[in-house]
Amino acid sequence: MAKKTALITGASSGIGLAIANMLGSEGYSLTVAARRPEKLEAAAAGLREQGYEVLAVAADMQSEDDIKRVVDAHRAEYGRLDVLINNAGVGVGAPVGDYTTKSIDMQMDVNFRAIVLFYRETVDLLRAAAAENKTALVVNTSSISGKFGQGWLSVYSATKHAVVGFTQAMNKELSGEGIKSTALCPAFVDTPMTDFAKGQVPADEMITPDDIAAGVRMLIHQSPACIVPEIIFQRPGEDL
Ligand SMILES: NC(=O)c1ccc[n+]([C@@H]2O[C@H](COP(=O)([O-])OP(=O)(O)OC[C@H]3O[C@@H](n4cnc5c(N)ncnc54)[C@H](OP(=O)(O)O)[C@@H]3O)[C@@H](O)[C@H]2O)c1
């Protein structure tokens, strides 16, 4: 059988990079995508140093053309897709009266619309993998704020609720064909995204990116008979 492959968005840092490292260690050939080319290339170089096969494609998840370009590049390089990790995301905090239209659109496009487009563009590859192995996996990074609405992060919160709902819908629509979907719902993870909060919550009290990658490692080892619709990652003592 051809080597299994994974496509990971938002793979240049934080959670996405930890998942890419884990999937490389599990023998997957990787396509990694993120917005800023230099940061992505540095991450890809680190992955290649581990001995992993890596295709890096810089792309803005707000752009439909860029998303198609990522999938086309992955298809041309590997010809198959076993695991899709829809992880790129952005959060802009503001009171509702202060939200700019630009920041609303950006969060809706990157956090949610891009996920729909990635399913649409890859579903034939996922179907082929599921037909061959009885299973293909899509992991969508939501958030704990995709389970409980949060003030000041209201738009982010709403986009992450959409990710949970869409993941449920994809399981209804595609899991009978072997394409399983899981939403990841973490509380604070120690990544660049939470630098704004590190005055209140020390980094060493946050969930680690490797904790999240460990959850995804569990998913790739499960039998085709098992679906995990979502995983909530909480911090000890935290009120939800
Ligand atoms: N950290 C947390 O506490 C936490 C909790 C719950 C959920 N999450 C979610 O976890 C995911 C990963 O975040 P993280 O914490 O690992 O943060 P991070 O280290 O800042 O990573 C975010 C990734 O997304 C990419 N990205 C952002 N906007 C993009 C765009 N327009 N086009 C393409 N790529 C884009 C970034 O690339 P560039 O840097 O080049 O833009 C980067 O690779 C996000 O969906 C986030 O909402 C995080």
Radius of gyration: 17 Å
Bin the strand percentage. 15-25%
What is the count of β-strands? 7
- CATH class assignment: Alpha Beta
Portion of residues within helices: 40-55%
Instruction: Record the strand order, biggest sheet.
Output: 3-2-1-4-5-6-7
What is the first-to-last residue Cα distance?
45 Å
CATH architecture: 3-Layer(aba) Sandwich
Q: How many domains would you count in the coordinates?
A: 1
The helix count comes to 6
The CATH homology group name: NAD(P)-binding Rossmann-like Domain
Helix-strand sequence: EHEHEHEHEHEHE
The profile of the biggest β sheet is: 7 strands, parallel
Shape: globular
Q: Helices and strands: which structural class?
A: alpha/beta
Named CATH topology: Rossmann fold
Enumerate the spans where pLDDT stays under 50 for 5 or more consecutive residues: none
Ligand catalogue: NADP nicotinamide-adenine-dinucleotide phosphate
Q: Give the integer mean of the pLDDT values.
A: 97
Family: Belongs to the short-chain dehydrogenases/reductases (SDR) family.
GO molecular function, one term: oxidoreductase activity
Pfam families: adh_short
Keywords: NADP, Oxidoreductase
Describe the structure.
- With 240 residues, the protein is an alpha/beta fold.
- It has a single domain (5-233), classed as 3-Layer(aba) Sandwich (Rossmann fold).
- The chain is built from six helices and seven strands; from the N terminus they run βαβαβαβαβαβαβ.
- The chain has helices at 14-25, 37-49, 64-78, 101-133, 154-174, 209-220, and strands spanning 5-9, 29-34, 54-58, 83-86, 136-141, 179-186, 230-233.
- It has a seven-stranded parallel β-sheet with strand order 3-2-1-4-5-6-7, with helices on both faces.
- Helix 5 links the parallel strand 5 and strand 6.
- Helix 1 (14-25) packs across helix 6 (209-220) and helix 3 runs parallel beside helix 4.
- The longest helix is centred in the middle third of the chain and has 33 residues, at 101-133.
- It is globular and about 50 Å long.
- The mean pLDDT is 97.
- The structure holds NADP nicotinamide-adenine-dinucleotide phosphate.
- Residues 10-16, 34-36, 39, 59-62, 87-91, 110, 141, 143, 186, 188-189, 191-194 line the site of NADP nicotinamide-adenine-dinucleotide phosphate (NAP).
- Residues 10-16, 34-36, 39, 59-62, 87-91, 110, 141, 143, 186, 188-189, 191-194 line the site of NADP nicotinamide-adenine-dinucleotide phosphate.
- Residues 4-196 form the Ketoreductase domain.
- GO terms for molecular function: oxidoreductase activity.
- InterPro entries: KR_dom, NAD(P)-bd_dom_sf, SDR_fam.
